[in-house]
Records
---
Amino acid sequence: MADLKEGSKAPQFTLPAVNLDKIGMGGETVSLQDFAGEKIVVLYFYPRDNTSGCTVEATGFRDLKGQFTRNGAVILGVSTDDLDTHRKFTEKQKLSFPLLTDEGGKIAQKYGVWKEKRVYGKTVVGIARSTFVIGKDGKIARIWPKVSPEGHAAEVLDVVKSMARWSRGG
């Protein structure tokens, strides 16, 4: 299990992705390295597509995507759902950012968010809802280890805006 802290180098990854903004809706891969030196990365891990909390969180990011983009950030959602499930969720919710497939939770483990939890009285292992903001330098600037979906995207945006102002010298 990873013991990442703010200021740690973010673990690298390359994962299959679905992106409504791209033709084909699948078959592409997204790597953290793609954004090095160029963008702030909002990497949010969530348990499952088409569930109430995950929908609230995803649509929150969707609704604020323009502001994230204007502040030099990209949004990447990660769950263990397959590409077909991501495609349906993306289309239904009109998500305009990539959803990445982490089959088996290998990347979630690297980020320390693959955890034992109780769901409907049963103990299961899966992704704990968490968010990481990664600076252009590849270091973790902010971690939310336990996320409440309502209003979370706005809270993340505040951090991104602050980072963007700082990098512009303001």
Note: The longest helix spans residues 52-70.
---
Amino acid sequence: MMWARESFGPEVVWAIEDCRHLSARLERDLMGFGQSVVRVPPKLMAQTRASARTRGKSDPIDALAVARGFLREPDLPVASHDEVSRELKLLVDRREVLVAQRTATINRLLWRVHELDPDHAPKARSLDLAKHRRILGDWLATVPGLVAELARDELADIIRLTETINALTKRIGQRVRHVAPVLLALPGCGELTAAKLVGETAGVTRFKSAAAFARHAGVAPVPVWSGNTAGRVRMTRSGNRQLNAALHRIAVTQIRLNGLGQVYYRKRLADSDSTTEALRCLKRRLARVVFGHLQTDEQNRQQPCQPAAA
């Protein structure tokens, strides 16, 4: 900090490549000193480096590319650290890891049971229920051999993982009901989806507009026209895919429900859109709605309602 102040003065903007699992600690330290930090997307840095006259890759070359990327794009997001969204993201990520582990363990267990006796193979998704796990466990206890022993161990792992997953799900639900009640009121948005949206957004105040949020979520259309094809667009392949998936779940659910989402989707189909195009338009519309709900929840957290005077 002394070097930066002596070299550049007190007003300094730090441009950092947005590798948050590595750069988060540096961002916090700089912000603790009252510094302004801007995040440069790795893709922008790589494109800037590739277009430069300097050949190769090194830390100084990357640092120069980050600086040039920041100067080229003046509206890059400013770093901010929202503990509410960060803790939700940590919980949701942990739950998803455990769900993946449980799925892999269930698949191995099914192979073992099929080897022992295909007639005792449980039905699809039935091992999520304690009743079916108990029935399978009682049968495995009567079967001798190493395969049955491994199957019993894997069943115990599934029981342990399920208990942890259920506890995390309950904890996530309690938190998201407290921090995002307005978002939860959106049709098709359950507790896990709302938690995913809050966690991946990482602070809605860092987006200057709903359009910027939609672009970050990968639902803003990309122009692909020239000459006689004016106005043609396609779906983007960039953006935060976790946010995109959450918006997709809400959109698919709203299409099944009677409501504004279904009405809008059918209107797009009546206007000669394909099902893919209509879904894309609905997701873009939902991004605007979700952005507004996130803003409202953020404002309510910052300025809680005061009780009326008696």
Note: The mean pLDDT is 89.
